Each structure stands twice: as C-alpha cells, then as structure tokens.
Amino acid sequence: FTEEKLGQAEKTELDAHLENLLSKAECTKHWTEKIMKQTEVLLQPNPNARIEEFVYEKLDRKAPSRTNNQEVLGQYMIDAGNEFGPGTAYGNALIKCGETQKRIGMADRELIQTSAINFLTPLRNFIEGDYKTIAKEKKLLHNKRLDLDAAKTRLKKAKMAEAKAIQLNSTQPEGDNFMVNLSYMLNLLHVKWLKSEQELRITQSEFDRQAEITRLLLEGISSTHAHHLRCLNDFVEAQMTYYAQCYQYMLDLQKQLGSFPSAFVSNNNQSSATSMSNASVSSSTAVTTSLLPSTSNTVITPTVSDLKESSGSRKARVLYDYDAANSSELSLLADEVITVYSIVGMDSDWLMGERGNQKGKVPITYLELLN
C-alpha cells in the first residue's frame, strides 16, 4: 500500500463495472444518510428530544411519551377558556380552538410514528446493516488486491534475480567451487520463482472470488433503491393524510366559529370581536365573525349577493381603520359611515365606496352593511 502511494509498485485496477457499482453504493449511502437525518429534523425539530430518543433506542428502552407543541398550546387555550368562562364567546372560542389544536397534535404524533416505521427504519437498516456488510466486503477486496499486488511484485523480483544470476553465470570464469555455488544459487532462485508463481495463482484466485462476492452484494443496490421508493411513497401518503386531517380540523373549526365566506354577519363594537374578525379573514375568501352576540340595535340581514342583485347602493359602517394600498382604493376610519355599491366584474371581496367626493375600492370585511 505504501509503495503504491509512493508510485513504486503497480496497482491492480478493478474492472469498470465493479467501480461503477462501488460508486453507486457510496452515493446511495451518502444521500440516504442526509435524507434520513433531515427527515428526523423535520419530524422532531427539538435536538434535545432527538438525542433522548437516540439514547433510549441504544438502550433498547421505550422513550417516555411527551406532549408536542400543538397539544401544549391546545391545553393552554382550553384552560384559558375555562378560566374566562365557557359561557362567554371568547372563552367558548378558546376551548374550541384548543380542542382542534390537540387533535392536530395527535395527528402529528401519528405522522411521526408512521414515518418512523415506514420510512426512517428502512433507511436506517440500510445504513447500519446492508451498507456495513458492503463496506466489510469492500475492505476485504482491498486487502486481497494488496496481497495480489505484493505477490506480483515478489514474482517480478524473483524473475529479475534469476535473470541476473544466469547473466552472471555466462560471464564469470570457470571454477569448481564457483560453479557449484552458482548452481546452488540458481536452483534456489528457481525454487523461489516457482513459489512466487504459486503464491500469485493463489492470491489471484482469492482476489477474483472476493471481487465476485462484492459484486453480487453491490448489485443488490438496485433492489435497495426499489425498496426505498416504496418507503418514500408510504412517507408521502402519511404526509398527505396528516395535512388532509389538519385541513379538515381547521375547516370544522371555522364552521364552529361561525365564519362564512362573502357574508356580512352581525358584529359589535368590542375590540376583541374586531381582532377575531381580522384574523379569520386573512385568507383570500372574505369571512367575518359571528362569535359575539350583537349589542347594537341594527340587525344585519343584507349580503353582498343582495347588494349586487339590487344594483343599488347601501350605507355601511366601517369596523376598523384601513389604509389604501394604491390610488384605486379608499382609506377608511373606524365607525364612519360610507355609501357602498357593486360594479359588474369587480372582485367578490371588494365593493366601491363613496365618502363625499372621494371614491375608491374598499374591502368588504372591513364593513358592516346597514339596513
């Protein structure tokens, strides 16, 4: 090995197919480790929790159950709702949100468990099992190649020494003692040459056998890829199930909170109701809140559809301040009353608003339509 590194010995090269298989195995191991570690980070962002799970796994003991962030948040919301009173609008809303957060936490726990069994475990088994076997046989192949190269070198040296002795025999003067010694030396060199040749045949045979064993193991990498592909499909399906559950939970929560798209629902002047309404309409669909009972004498029955069908105008009270984003919009001040009407082709989330001689688009979620 040292002589190879110094360029003083020949090196037996592996065939191109075997080299490609070794490269493919190394590449598979490299990216499998990266994907596995990053998936663990995705499923468990807390590094301390990952270390604890690793220690319990090495000790062959079950890690203690731990509440996740969604479950903790959900419990805080439920406790706060009970503190404020389940009979109040805010307390009731907190309890509903808390229960939903806990359900999301349970779905997250199921995602982690399913992903660990169907995705992470097969990847870890490859790294800690199959690839370790490949690495062991690869090391044996390397040692067999070094033995083969050493045998080739010894045979080469034996042939050179014998050739030099024959040359010396042809140039030295005759003499009984000298000829006897030279004959003995030639016989000794010939025996050494035959021994080196036999050793070369043995090491060549062992190298070829080890190369075949290594090749058979490396060709199993294609099967490993196919298995990992199935595991990847299982992981994607687990994620799809998780996100579908979360979406359904939030959709149910939205319905429980009384939020409906493109509808003007009764709203009082409390800042808590305003904040809740603003949070519920952050999506592209305009929604308003009906959690709190109306304390005003105005009953809001008209909707945007009514306004568009009538092709007329109505008065609307501004729920909270709004700064116009551009010249086509109208800035609003909380509690002021403006005139609104619809224009054909306008986005369903907007109306035209007028205040004196000022005119511009206004978002419907900032308005309370008056009778």
Outline of the structure:
The radius of gyration is 41 Å and the shape is elongated. The protein folds into 2 domains: 16-259, Arfaptin homology (AH) domain/BAR domain (Substrate Binding Domain Of Dnak, Chain:A, Domain 2), CATH 1.20.1270.60; 314-369, Roll (SH3 type barrels), CATH 2.30.30.
Task: Explain what the structure shows.
This protein is an alpha+beta fold and 371 residues long. The chain has two domains: 16-259, Up-down Bundle (Substrate Binding Domain Of Dnak, Chain:A, Domain 2), CATH 1.20.1270; 314-369, SH3 Domains (SH3 type barrels), CATH 2.30.30. Helices cover 64% and strands 8% of the residues. It contains nine helices and seven strands. It has helices at residues 2-5, 16-43, 47-58, 69-84, 89-171, 176-218, 221-256, 271-280, 304-310; strands spanning 260-261, 287-288, 313-318, 337-341, 350-355, 358-363, 367-369.
